[in-house]
Specification:
Elements: E1 2-3, E2 13-18, E3 34-42, E4 45-53, E5 59-66, E6 72-80, E7 83-92, E8 96-105, E9 113-120, E10 125-132, E11 141-147, E12 152-158, E13 166-172, E14 178-183, E15 192-195, E16 201-205, E17 208-213, E18 218-223, E19 234-235, E20 240-243, E21 248-256, E22 266-274, E23 279-287, E24 304-306, E25 312-321, E26 326-334, E27 340-347, E28 353-361, E29 367-374, E30 382-389, E31 395-401, E32 409-411, E33 418-422, E34 430-435, E35 441-447, E36 453-454, E37 461-468, E38 474-482
Length: 483
């Protein structure tokens, strides 16, 4: 159904730039915090988007730039006062980055909207668009695909807790006209969507793989289940898909094999399939222990990425044991026939527990593997990580963004003429920045413990503050209301 949508531009929001190493707060809802997508913005730099909780216990969106070795070089976080925004994908055009995701009204919204934010190349939010879906439902998993030539944004979503509650469609990025279609037979796991190579329709995956026409009507469907080469294996992660050519689809998925009396374990498998939905090749990449609790590790994952040389990068777990609080992760490269070229295992040696959320193919023939890292499966001490893996499968660098604790206190708040800060013991001098809602720094000065800071000249409104010590390390961040 087609419909015109009301565009909501520039929601009440907060944007903070943090130079080199802005860190975030630990929170018990660790499964909801992670890098979610990324892109290569030059031969030596990458941009990842993700979500995490701040020290004020608010779920924030973040964009982070990494260098060629995966080390953090710049970052921002973004908070909306009206909506909780979960970023899903990021795309680049000539003048800006487009971040797309889902948004629900605070505090307990039940209707999902598509959110599009346009950021400048120096990560300043320029504008945003909110597009309500026709159905008044909460979709908690989404994927997107940008058709650059058509200037259309494809999307697929699912309500994970309501079986058969799926949606797919597209948004015209000039008129923001919405075309959407609802389904009951694609499944309830992470959906993925791609245009067919000949432009005649779309490929949508979930617990099933569906071929649709150009109006998103299903014309053929394959229900994942018994594979001829591995009949006991059942993929449950929602197969991630890429196009091999105009007749073949490459897919990757977590699988669960506890569903039959004679099967044990779980893991990751890949394969190829024709547009006629004939299974061509399969390969089981890894098998876990029976205590893996696979459902806890496949949420919103992106297992698969296509490289510029038409090979395919797959990331996931090579070992997973909840009972021993240990795991290992891997990255593997395949050719278009699902034949493995190489794989690399990154063993945590029992010191950390890595959640794999995605893989980004890089122009050097390697990849970035990213997600969430904790001390153990049950730990609430967490951080975001990115592993840079070279073209031969060797890990060449890692970034870890750990928890952040606010060390400063601001008062009064709200404030009219002045503000003061309590600084940590032993800190006699710090650097303060106040940032308005457009991301511009409106005040930058050195401050002392409890010394009054004049803000009488500032317009009324909400501002973000960040306080750093003399070495540039971040000590505090938050909001202040100027009356």
């Amino acid at each position: 159904m087609k419909m015109k949508v009301l565009l909501v531009l520039i929601l009440a929001a907060s944007v903070v730039h943090a130079q080199i190493g802005f860190e975030f707060y630990q929170n018990d809802n660790k499964h909801y915090q992670s890098f979610t997508s990324g892109l290569e913005i030059s031969n030596n730099e990458y941009l990842l988007v993700g979500k995490m909780y701040t020290s004020a216990d608010e779920l924030a969106m973040t964009l982070m730039k990494l260098d060629s070795l995966g080390s953090l070089t710049d970052s921002i976080f973004y908070l909306s006062d009206e909506y909780e925004i979960t970023p899903v994908d990021i795309f680049e055009n000539d003048s800006s980055y487009m971040v797309v995701g889902r948004a629900v009204a605070k505090p307990f919204g039940v209707v999902t909207n598509i959110w599009i934010g346009y950021f400048s190349k120096d990560l300043v939010l320029m504008s945003e668009v909110l597009i309500p879906l026709l159905a008044s439902k909460k979709y908690n998993m989404f994927t997107f695909y940008l058709e650059v030539n058509k200037k259309e944004l494809l999307f697929a979503g699912v309500n994970r807790w309501q079986t058969g509650n799926s949606v797919a469609g597209k948004v015209d990025l000039e008129s923001f006209e919405l075309l959407e279609k609802y389904y009951s037979d694609i499944g309830w796991k992470m959906p993925h969507i791609l245009p067919k190579a000949d432009g005649s329709g779309y490929v949508i995956s979930g617990n099933a793989l569906a071929i649709t026409d150009d109006s998103f009507n299903i014309v053929d469907i394959y229900l994942f289940g018994a594979y001829p080469t591995a009949p006991e294996k059942f993929p449950i992660g929602g197969a991630d898909i890429e196009l091999v050519n105009d007749s073949t689809i490459f897919w990757a998925s977590y699988f669960e094999s506890h569903l039959t009396p004679f099967a044990t374990g779980a893991g990751v498998m890949v394969g190829t399939m024709s547009y006629d939905l004939d299974l061509l090749n399969t390969h089981i990449l890894s098998i876990y222990n029976a205590d893996s609790i696979i459902g806890n590790v496949e949420t919103e994952q992106r297992l698969l990425a296509k490289s510029s040389d038409s090979t395919f990068i797959v990331g996931g777990y090579s070992f997973l044991s909840v009972s021993t609080n240990s795991n290992a992760i891997f990255c593997a490269k395949y050719n278009e026939k699902a034949e493995k070229i190489w794989d690399v295992k990154y063993d945590t040696l029992g010191s950390n527990f890595y959640y794999v959320r995605g893989v980004l193919a890089t122009s050097d023939g390697g990849c970035l593997l990213y997600g969430l890292k904790t001390e153990s499966f049950y730990s609430s001490v967490w951080g975001l990580y990115a592993l840079k893996i070279g073209p031969s499968g060797v890990v060449v660098g890692e970034t870890f963004i750990s928890g952040f604790e606010n060390l400063v206190t601001i008062y009064p708040n709200p404030a009219k003429d002045y503000i003061q800060f309590d600084l940590p013991k032993g800190t006699d001098l710090a650097n303060l920045e106040l940032i308005d809602l457009s991301g511009s720094v409106v005040l930058a000065q050195k401050i002392n413990h409890q010394a009054p800071i004049d803000i009488s000249f500032l317009p009324q409104g909400m501002y973000m503050y960040q306080v750093k010590n003399k070495m540039g390390a971040l000590m505090g961040v938050g909001k202040v209301l100027k009356e």
